[in-house]
């Protein structure tokens, strides 16, 4: 009886989920196989099994909730906001694009002309592999898919399928961009976190030498304090980059420095609109306690 009830409850959502699964079958054949994608696909298979009455009641409840939310979620809820978007100029060389891709670890980047409000294409890192390092990326950029923040993620997923794009530029009401949304962002709403084929799995903190660390600007201050034995101040910001921005009240240039108690902070990599990595130099006494 419980299985029959589960089937009845899930019936209204069956078409929506099977539509997503049909899309992902085509999506998966267009990218290289990897363990993370295979694990994700297994999860999709399990959800289809649940549609036909398999799985325990807790799992069925989770699927039911995620499918229902998927149908009512807007692009604004899942997109990467403009401030966190890493783009690349259409005039950049292939070699410059390779360096950026290595630093950032994403597989696709919006390509802009003059500013991020004028996105003219999307660059896939696989297209850089056999390109001439001295050429610009202009000829490699693919036409962007433009969408808006109030569109449903279900509708955007259909547009992804029809256009064979996997990254959409989310336009704002002023003609600029509000952010980006990817196939991965949308599917994670339904099946949980999956991994991009170039996801960076490295620790956000890299020890260079005793007392010296290169840290991602997105690293959380509280976690840095705990892991490195520091006493960096915590405020309305969450991240190390947020701390720097609050102190300087602007986006700093590479090489700019400030001091917080026993920690020297230097901007190691940045763009005009974003800090990427920060070099921390910890006072010898603190470093000895942490490094042992």
CATH level 3 topology of the largest domain = CBS-domain
CATH architecture of the largest domain: Roll
Q: Summarize the main sheet.
A: 5 strands, antiparallel
Strands in their spatial order, largest beta sheet: 8-9-12-11-10
| Total individual domains | 3
Strand content: 15-25%
What fraction, in percent, of the residue positions are helical? Answer: 40-55%
CATH class of the largest domain: Alpha Beta
Poorly predicted tracts of residues: 1-14, 23-37, 47-53
**Count of beta strands:** 12
Radius of gyration: 22 Å
Number of helices: 11
**Helix-strand pattern:** HHHHHEEHEEEHEEHEEHHEEEH
Overall outline: globular
What is the CATH homology-level superfamily of the largest domain? CBS-domain
Mean pLDDT: 75
Terminal Cα separation, in Å? 61 Å
In short:
Keywords: CBS domain, Repeat. GO terms for molecular function: flavin adenine dinucleotide binding. The chain is an alpha+beta fold.
Written description of the protein model:
30% of the residues are buried. The protein is globular. It is 40% helix and 23% strand. It has a five-stranded antiparallel β-sheet with strand order 8-9-12-11-10. It has a four-stranded mixed β-sheet with strand order 1-7-6-5. Helix 4 packs antiparallel against helix 8. It has three domains: 70 residues, no CATH class; 115 residues, CBS-domain, CATH 3.10.580; 87 residues, Uridine Diphospho-n-acetylenolpyruvylglucosamine Reductase, domain 3, CATH 3.30.465.10. The chain contains eleven helices and twelve strands. With 292 residues, it is α+β, with helices and mostly antiparallel strands. The N and C termini lie far apart (61 Å).
């Amino acid at each position: 009886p419980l299985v029959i009830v589960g089937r009845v409850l899930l019936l209204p959502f069956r078409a929506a989920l099977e539509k997503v699964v049909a899309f992902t079958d085509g999506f998966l054949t267009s990218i290289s196989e990897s363990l993370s994608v295979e694990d994700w696909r297994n999860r999709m298979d399990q959800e289809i099994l649940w549609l036909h009455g398999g799985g325990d009641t807790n799992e069925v409840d989770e699927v039911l909730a995620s499918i229902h939310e998927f149908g009512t979620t807007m692009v604004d809820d899942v997109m990467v906001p403009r401030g966190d978007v890493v783009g690349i100029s259409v005039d950049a060389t292939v070699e410059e694009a390779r360096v950026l891709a290595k630093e950032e670890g994403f597989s696709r980047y919006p390509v802009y002309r003059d500013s991020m409000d004028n996105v003219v294409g999307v660059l896939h890192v696989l297209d850089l592999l056999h390109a001439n390092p001295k050429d610009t990326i202009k000829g490699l950029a693919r036409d962007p898919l433009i969408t808006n923040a109030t569109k449903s993620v279900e509708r955007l997923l259909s547009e992804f399928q029809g256009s064979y794009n996997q990254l959409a530029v989310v336009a704002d009401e002023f003609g600029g961009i509000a952010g980006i949304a990817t196939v991965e962002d949308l599917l994670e709403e339904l099946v949980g976190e999956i991994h991009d084929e170039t996801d960076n799995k490295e620790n956000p903190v890299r020890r260079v030498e005793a007392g010296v660390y290169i840290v991602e600007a997105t690293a959380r201050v509280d976690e840095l304090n705990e892991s490195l034995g520091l006493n960096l101040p915590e405020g309305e910001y969450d991240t190390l980059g947020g701390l720097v921005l609050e102190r300087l009240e602007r986006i700093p240039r590479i090489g700019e420095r400030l001091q917080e108690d026993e920690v020297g902070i230097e901007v190691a990599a940045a763009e005009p609109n974003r800090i990427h990595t920060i070099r921390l130099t910890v006072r010898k006494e603190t470093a000895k306690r942490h490094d042992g």
